[in-house]
Specification:
globular; 10-stranded mixed sheet; 12 helices; about 450 residues; single chain
């Protein structure tokens, strides 16, 4: 913690350089909060399986003012998902790579740099930026606010519909151990609709890269958002995210969080259903082996009546991998007619992997439909025997059962082209083949 305080005091002007004055204006208050609270403690109930202070104790380098960005992502990463029909954007080391939107991009929609958005829409920036993350004395959020230099904004005005998926590829690149701070702000006004796919990739596997990421999502009345994150990083990657969502009346959000390869990952989802008839679907899946770690923590607040949420997280662990899930749904007093369902299902492939699960419900209303549950086990021996008795080799039978286990999470993805691609990637992952988003092939500059 001390090295980051000293770094901020010594390099404040360098941190501010090239950034919007509005973005810089949030740093000082965040710095004072960070000095007071620091990182979340590993001893706390919410962080007992992920010690953020320990993960970030190394003296990482920072990429300031776009330094170290010497690759051309449009040439290096061809992240084409067949049949997805998407607009493509890139972030390299936390900085949005300038890109001219195609001619068919909706002219009223903003999809681009956080700094550019602050300059073009200053009143909207002040209305939304850090308004969810900044309400919590959360060490990870304030740390990101102190050091972030750019990010991505999707702003969809009232009743605008973005028909095609927007595909944003996050690339961590460099030759040295580094700490990268990323920010996303998604604003859908009343009646707006959009689909965003975010792909996480590490350009090189040798350096250790720590990424902090804060996502703030505002879904206006009757707005609809599909937000899918696909992590395919390296074993040396640390990924720490906070995702904040606030939904107005009759809005719908569908969040898919899929980890296919990683090092250490902690994802937080804090969702407020603040308007009646708001609806949330939160689906997560993690495949981990070797010594990978994946920790998902969710908090869904039903603040008003007639809200609906459906939450499903599945883990498939092997070798010495560690998984953790902590899910909490709170139904506030007076939030009658709430429907809230939470499920965690885990499949363990070895005696040495570990899964920690804690599903929770807190209900302060008496006219609700709520349930939560968890199961952890191994493959069904009877099903495995049946497949083998029909002439299917055991390895293939195991693969088929694992693949079937992921089916309902994959079906939760409404981007049809992506759903088909996920099936291929998951099969390759189970076969032990190199996991890359084919189409994210690298070429020479």
């Amino acid at each position: 913690m001390k090295q980051y305080i000293d770094f901020y005091n010594s390099y404040r002007e360098k941190i501010d350089e090239g950034c919007s004055p509005l973005l810089n204006s949030f740093r000082e208050k965040a710095f004072e909060t960070f000095r007071q609270f620091g990182f979340p403690a590993g001893q706390s109930e919410d962080y007992q399986h992920t010690d953020i202070a320990g993960l970030l104790k190394e003296d990482f380098g920072f990429y300031l003012n776009r330094s170290g960005i010497n690759i051309h992502p449009h040439k290096v990463f061809h992240c084409d998902v067949p049949n997805l029909n998407s607009y493509k954007h890139f972030i390299v080391n936390g900085h949005f790579v300038d890109y001219e939107n195609p001619k068919d991009f909706p002219p009223m929609v903003f999809s681009g740099s956080l700094n550019a958005f602050a300059k073009q829409y200053p009143s909207l920036f002040l209305k939304y930026y850090n308004q969810l993350a900044g309400t919590k004395n959360d060490g990870l959020s304030v740390f990101n606010t102190i050091f972030v230099q750019d990010g991505y904004v999707l702003y969809v005005p009232e009743n605008e519909v973005v028909e095609k998926t927007i595909q944003l590829t996050n690339i961590s690149a460099g030759n040295n151990n580094s700490l990268i701070n990323r920010r996303m702000l998604l604003i859908l006004e009343s009646g707006a609709q959009a689909k965003l796919l975010v792909c996480d990739h590490a350009y090189e596997e040798s350096p250790t890269t720590a990424n902090t990421q804060i996502v703030e999502i505002f879904a206006g009345e009757n707005a609809k958002l599909d937000f899918c994150e696909l992590e395919e990083s390296s074993p040396n990657t640390i990924r720490l995210t906070n995702n904040f969502v606030r939904q107005a009346a009759s809005s719908q959000t569908r969040i898919n969080a899929i980890t296919l390869s990683n090092g250490t990952t902690r994802n937080n989802y804090i969702i407020d259903l603040a308007g009646e008839y708001a609806e949330t679907h939160l689906y997560g899946m993690a495949i981990a082996d070797n010594r990978q770690k994946i920790d998902n923590h969710t908090l869904i607040n039903h603040l008003v009546p007639n809200g609906h949420c459906n939450e499903l997280f599945k883990y498939i662990l092997d070798d010495e991998a560690v998984g953790a899930f902590s899910g909490r749904i709170i139904v506030a007093k007076g939030a009658q007619k709430t429907e809230a369902f939470q499920s965690n299902r885990n499949l363990l492939g070895s005696r040495n992997c570990r899964m920690y699960s804690k599903p929770q419900l807190e209900i302060y209303a008496d006219d609700v439909k709520c349930s939560h549950g968890m199961t952890t086990g191994q493959l069904d021996e009877n099903a495995l025997f049946y497949l083998c008795s029909r002439g299917i080799p055991k390895d293939e039978a195991v693969l088929l059962l694992k693949f079937a286990f992921t089916g309902d999470v994959i079906q939760g993805v409404r981007m049809e082209g992506l759903r088909d691609r996920l099936k291929l990637l998951i099969e390759k992952r189970f076969r032990g083949e190199l996991v890359t988003c084919r189409g994210c092939g690298r070429v020479e500059n």
